[in-house]
């Protein structure tokens, strides 16, 4: 019988490969995205010291209040706008995009496009 590896393990392996290729620095931190079944999370991380510089998620009250649902493309786009605004307030203009092993389409793409439109460069 053929057994398939779970989607979570496949995604984690892809993410590990992606993380081997690049890391966030102080000049160009990493925009890491994670999505669960119910929420999305975005962090801007400086990997040289291991600090999260900026974060946003659909769990936060001020973000959740603006959304009808927390797990659709519209929510992802709004989260991208929020994370970009918070990053620009801290003086972060360029980042490295880490899609977290997820396929670059749908929610992940919507978040990335919204962050670009709001002023982040990657």
List keywords for this structure.
4 helices, globular, 4 strands, 19% strand, 122 residues, 4-stranded mixed beta sheet, alpha+beta, single chain
Chart the SSEs and their pairings.
Blueprint: H1 7-21, E1 30-35, E2 40-46, E3 51-57, H2 61-64, H3 73-89, E4 96-98, H4 107-117
Parallel strand pairs: 1-4
Antiparallel strand pairs: 1-2, 2-3
Helix pairs in contact: 3-4
Written account of the structure:
- This protein is α+β, with helices and mostly antiparallel strands and 122 residues long.
- Helix content is 39%, strand content 19%.
- The chain has a four-stranded mixed β-sheet with strand order 3-2-1-4, sandwiched between helices.
- A hairpin with a 4-residue loop joins strand 1 and strand 2.
- Helix 3 packs parallel to helix 4.
Can you describe this structure in just a few lines?
With 122 residues, this protein is of the alpha+beta class. It has helices at residues 7-21, 61-64, 73-89, 107-117; strands at residues 30-35, 40-46, 51-57, 96-98.
Based on CA inertia axes, which overall geometry fits?
Answer: globular
Strand content: 15-25%
Taking all residues together, what is the mean pLDDT?
A: 95
Using only C-alpha atoms, the radius of gyration works out to 15 Å
> What is the tally of helical segments?
4
Which secondary-structure class do the elements indicate?
alpha+beta
Helix content estimate: 25-40%
**Euclidean distance between termini CA atoms:** 44 Å
């Amino acid at each position: 019988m053929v057994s398939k590896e779970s989607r979570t393990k496949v995604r984690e392996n892809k993410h590990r490969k992606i993380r081997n290729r690049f890391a966030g620095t102080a000049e160009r931190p990493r925009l890491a995205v994670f999505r669960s079944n119910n929420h999305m999370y975005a962090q801007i991380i400086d990997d040289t010291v291991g600090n999260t510089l900026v974060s946003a998620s659909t769990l936060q009250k001020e973000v959740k209040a603006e959304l009808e649902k927390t797990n659709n493309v519209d929510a992802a786009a709004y989260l991208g706008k929020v994370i970009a605004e918070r990053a620009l307030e801290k003086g972060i203009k360029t980042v490295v995009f880490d899609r977290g092993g997820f396929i670059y389409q749908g929610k992940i793409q919507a978040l990335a496009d919204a962050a670009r439109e709001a002023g982040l460069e990657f």
